[in-house]
Hints:
Elements: H1 26-31, H2 35-54, H3 64-76, H4 84-99, H5 110-121, H6 125-145, H7 160-241, H8 246-271, H9 292-297, E1 303-309, H10 316-336, E2 342-349, E3 353-361, H11 376-386, E4 390-396, E5 399-407
Parallel strand pairs: 1-2
Antiparallel strand pairs: 2-3, 3-5, 4-5
Helix pairs in contact: 2-3, 3-4, 4-5, 4-6, 5-6, 5-7, 6-7, 7-8, 7-10, 10-11
Amino acid sequence: MHGPPRPPWAREHRTGRFGAPPVPGAFRKRRDPGIGAAVGAGLFQALGARGQAGEGNVYFTLGPAAYALLLIGPVALLFRRRYPVAAFVVAAAASLLFATVAEPHWFWTVAPVMALFHLACAGRRTAALICAGTAYAAYLLVFTVFADPIGLLPQVRPGVREMLLLGLGLAAAIFLGGVAKIRSEQMAQLMKVRAERERAEEEQQRRQASEERLRIARELHDVIGHHLSLINVQAGVGLHLMDNRPEQAREALSAIKTASSEALREVRSVLGALRTEDEAAPRQPALGLSRLGDLTADAGLPVETKVTGEVRTLPAEVDRAAYRIVQEALTNVRRHAGAGATASICVDYLPTALHLAIRNDAGSAPAAESGPPGTGIAGMRARAQSLGGSLEAGQVDGGFLVSVLLPTGADA
């Protein structure tokens, strides 16, 4: 079985520097010992020495020993990731030794400069400065102070220009290595931030989808619970009156038909929110307190409604929640109150809130289907709390009261 697709930043099991996800090929780069750099440096130094020897600028026979000396530095570059200091020391020593038998040229410095660049790029700036300073000092000592004692030819001794250029080249290698390191850190940080942003966006989408599923579940619970309860009550009335009062049984069947049609319409409306394309425009008013009269008319028991305060347009989520809470409260009355129970609804528009009070007076006997307590009160409380409101419910004077306070903010 295949699980859900993983985001791009989570497909690699290994992470890059600073915890950032690796880019494609980063794993291969870490395993790469630097063969390309070693081959390039070897070609530069070997072919450069051959060209210079053809011009008579190399005072040593280019045999196996000479080429081995030229390739020691490039081979040392293969180990520059694991032993950066040792790689630079070997490459610098080999180049310095070859420079004693050839005229000054930049060909002999390719391998040590690359090793020094990597040393700085690895973040070892102090080690790079010490290595560069030591190598430069050794170069000056060999070709100036000890040039005569060791018998160096005048042609291989560098002038002031070559000495300055070598010093500038070493400094430039350290500087560019430091810049490359900063750039690498910035890119790693950028990738990390981008991955975090993508993860946050996906988490937000998952949370929104979860909240939407929860909202749809609550809507379906309210719709189905309310209308099935009403259908159940009316069916019981119809069965009871079928033989003795068929005209009243007909009214009960008509109420069942109306309730079932309304339930189907509301279920389609709720599930229609899942359609994101080609969704038809709603043909019924949105659920809210404006439809409170229709709700109480189909409640299946006498309901008295009282509205106080200045009626105004409420936020859509508050208006819908108020309707659903009243609907669930009336459903609980039909389920658990006795026969002949009545209910009253008080809607109070406060300056910055909406107060609902749904109260019922118990009938003469418990309802036949009053089974174990359900989740109606918990669902209403959760709906109110999701909007920053509160709900209290309990027994009062032989009946039951549900009191809800929903904040509405400033007037619309």
